[in-house]
Specification:
With 55 residues, the protein is mainly alpha-helical. It contains one helix and no strands. It is rod-shaped and about 50 Å long.
């Protein structure tokens, strides 16, 4: 019974993470977790310099 509860909790955590990633990608985030991912227009990849002018 304990194993079943543990598996359900882990499945819930993984499901929530997948839903978060799906929602973020659908809203246009190039790099999830990067605060500049939606505002960087220069096409930089995953926080490679959005904040400091692409350097």
């Amino acid at each position: 019974m304990v194993n079943l509860i543990l598996i359900l909790i882990l499945a819930l955590i993984v499901g929530a993470a997948i839903a978060y990633i799906y929602k973020a990608k659908k809203s246009g985030a190039k790099c999830i977790g990067c605060p500049d991912s939606k505002t960087c227009s220069s096409g930089c990849g995953c926080c490679s310099g959005c904040r400091n002018g692409g350097k």
